[in-house]
Amino acid sequence: METPRIRVIPSFSTKGSLGKRRRNIVVGSVVLALATSIIDPPRSRAGGPESRAHAQSSTPAPSFVGAKTCGSCHRDELKQWTGSHHQLAMQPANPETVSGNFNHANFSNGKVTSTFFRRGAKFMVRTDGPDGALHDYEIKFTFGVSPLQQYLIALPGGRLQALGIAWDSRPRARGGQRWFFLYPGQKITPSDPLHWTGIDQNWNHMCADCHSTNVRKNYDLKSRSYTTSYAEVDVACEACHGPGSDHIAWARRKGDWKNFGPNRGLTIALDEHAKSEWTTDPGTGNPRRRQPRDSEREIQMCAQCHSRRGEIHEDYVHGQPVEDDYRVSLLEEALYFPDGQIKGEDYEYGSFIQSRMFHAGVTCSDCHEPHSLKLRAEGNRLCTNCHSAPKYDSAGHHFHKTGSPGSRCVECHMPARTYMVIDPRRDHSIRVPRPDLSVELGTPNACNQCHGNRPAQWAADTVRKWYGHSPSGFQRFAHTLSAGTQGAPGAQAALNALVKDGDQPAIARATALTLLAAYAPSPTDTAIRAGLNDTSPLVRAATARALANSDLRASVPGLGGLFSDPVRAVRLEAAEAAAGVPEDGLSASFRAELNHAVGEYIAAQNLNADRPESHLNLGLLYAKEGKPDRAEVEYKIALSLDPTFTPAAVNLADLYRQTGKDAEGEEVLKNLLTHSPNDPSAIHTLGLLMVRQKRLEKALPLLADASRLAPDNARYSYVYAIALSDTGQSAKAIEVLQAIVKAHPYDRDSLAALMSLSEQSQQPVQALGYAQRLNQLMPGDPELAEAIGRLKQQIAVAHPEGQ
User: Fold this and answer.
1) For 147-170, what is each residue's pLDDT tens digit?
2) For residue 118, what are the contacts with CB-CB under 8 A and spacing of at least 6?
3) What is the pLDDT of residue 58?
4) Which residues contact 671 (CB under 8 A, 6 or more apart)?
5) Where among 591, 610, 629 does a domain terminate?
């Protein structure tokens, strides 16, 4: 995948495939006042009931036995698995596994020319190392197989790193059989975390647990080294079925085999597809599951890798829902479009749980053979296994010539998006095409993906003509999430309504709750009360996040029930939201539950001690708890792991501000800028520091640069405008603010500043216009009502003829 180059700071770094993503971190900058700044990271959350079977039992935990042992009985399954993408996920580099051209092939990217060659039995590459000079490196492992293959190189400290140059394994006729750079157009130097030697290309953290079986990262912070281990190098039988020693004992009638129960010693029963029988309603032509799906075990098991998520617990127990070990990303703006279509590399789970299919009872193996990973049927036959072919596989439904691309179900209902330059992946939200939403919200649609030379309005009109109406589809949350992201008029009420709409996907309702955080909701609000008691751990966790910006004393009683939630991710979210609450007035039992949840939160961060995000999160936690010395240590560790990690530098500088050490904060920011000279967040924060020190001649250029470098960040431009105003440049300030509201029409701070500056400039008509726009966003605000009345009176005095 190719993720946008944004620094991501979820409470837990969200993982995807190695070399395919920039961290899933969206930096949230909150300027507390013109002269202060702090970054508080958005979080990606999820949850799922915890299984403690072996933790509560005196019997030893089952062990991993290997695919060869499993295959001694399950020969057909082993045969299907052999050669699958799971079996080929990672392999030692040898002539049988390496696809790329290592016959002294050269590949140039920018000023660096890399050479791929053989040295005896070894596969080698001569390329730029961490010092920028060319060195020879041995390829230790292949990574993936099709449509591209990456290569892993061993570096000191037990690290395996993914080369940024990959092999296009497609046939030459399709443009393949070539080396290519995974980040075209980007200048990536050895100091960049995205360089192949950098922290963002590290296999041990980023990809190991999804490309191998039973991975243990084993990172030691003191030595900054790994002793990573795995049971099998690839994604083998027990990656999905769990450790097999008990099942082997059952099969061989050994040990305690009689007491293994109906699962026959297996940790997880993957039997949903066996119970999945679908019928077609002869009247409607629509499918219906004969027996409702009574579990999500298979879906949750697949989600441990096929989701955008961050690891929070290493001892994964097969059979428990994914959210007890991972936090799953919600429909965040950087990852999904407002209607839930994929944008970043989101994998399948976050999309699939939005779909009508998921809610109707479809499970992964209804469509995918789980061992070979092949589709159960080709073309439209896969869909017409359940859906009536006469009704749906006909020109009367799809309005395209039979056999054309437009007649294929997936082209309309599962359009593809390309990642990693050449890897198209289908959107598993399985939605109705909505070109009308493209017209209104700018979202993509399947029609214009093929008919790219036509406007979205043409597609919307055509669909309406075909069916006599605009389709609505199952997912009805696009307008609400779009309004919530922009802070549009009526957004708060719409978000509240979505949270309480149980017919909509839990992931969308959870996303609505995170957007409600901007409004500092009360724990007594109906949406918050509904979220606290929702059956979905995604929603409960998001409710805790929604309360994070509210009055802590008022919110903690509501959060209390989440400290002992059966889902680890919910407990961690509640702990993060409530950390630092004053102890007075809290019962001993309440405090004990909170402390336990905070302990789990710290343990989850320490699991990812090799990542700067985790130390940032610990620093933020300790700062909330009033422990500045410990916060300082964590921020410094984060920067030692990645000197370009802006959020740690900004928060460390803010910590120094709070403790009267602005000079030290200035050094931190200047040091960061030596590594990332064009980082707008660092430049903006340094500008604020200069304002505090009344060095306005240096502050203004910095604030201007931050605004220029991050044109989408309304806050940076707003602060720059206020600084201009404070230095007597009101006309230029108004010009900057007008540009902001043109790009961000619902930015309240900029509208309020324009109202104030226009009134000060004796332009009451313009000021009233801005006040009325604000009133749409803040109906009932008494100060705003007073300002509107005052401005109307000024206009009446100035223009009595208009009365």
Assistant:
1) 999 999 999 999 999 999 999 999
2) 102, 103, 124
3) 56
4) 643, 649
5) 610
Predicted pLDDT of residue 39: 36
Domain of residue 527 covers: 481-610
> What's the rounded Cα separation, in Å, for the pair 227 and 219?
7
pLDDT digits (tens, 9 = 90+) for 629-666: 999 999 999 999 999 999 999 999 999 999 999 999 99
d(CA 506, CA 116): 48
pLDDT tens-digit series, residues 220-254: 999 999 999 999 999 999 999 999 999 999 999 99
Residue 631 lies in a domain: no
Percent of the chain with pLDDT over 90: 82
Sign of CA dihedral 219, 220, 226, 230: negative
CA quadruple 86, 89, 95, 101: dihedral positive or negative?
positive
Q: Cβ–Cβ contacts within 10 Å for residue 780, how many?
A: 7
Q: How many Å apart are CA 159 and CA 532, to the nearest integer?
A: 42
DSSP state, 643?
Answer: T
Residue 39 bridge partners (DSSP) = 29
Which amino acid is residue 456, in one-letter code? Answer: A
Torsion angle of alpha carbons 576, 582, 584, 587, nearest 10°? 0
What is the value of pTM for the model shown?
0.92
Least confident of 55-59, 318-322, 799-803: 55-59
Q: Tokens at residue 397, please?
A: 């439904």
What does the block give as tokens for 193? 């975390």
Residues 172 and 287 in one domain: no
- Taking alpha carbons only, the member of 485, 502, 357, 381 closest to residue 432 is 357
Mean pLDDT calculated for residue range 424-446: 97
CB-hemisphere CA count at 13 Å for 226? 23
- Mean pLDDT calculated for residue range 697-707: 97
Report CA-CA distances (Å) from 261 to 73, 256, 258, 264, 317: 20, 11, 7, 6, 18
Does some domain include residue 314?
Answer: yes
Residue 417 and residue 516 share a domain: no
In eight-state DSSP terms, residue 560 is G
Tens of pLDDT, residues 297-323: 999 999 999 999 999 999 888 888 899
Question: Distance between CA 556 and CA 579 in Å, rounded?
Answer: 10
Q: Using CA of residue 158, residue 164, residue 170, residue 176, what is the dihedral sign?
A: negative
Furthest-apart CA pair in the chain: how many Å? 101
Alpha-carbon distance 721 to 752, whole Å? 12
> Measured in whole angstroms, how far is the alpha carbon of residue 714 from the centre of its chain?
22
Determine the Cα–Cα distance for residues 328 and 541; give it in Å rounded to an integer. Answer: 11
Could you tell me if residue 362 is inside a domain?
A: yes
Closest to 230 measured CA to CA, from 207, 198, 197, 254 = 207
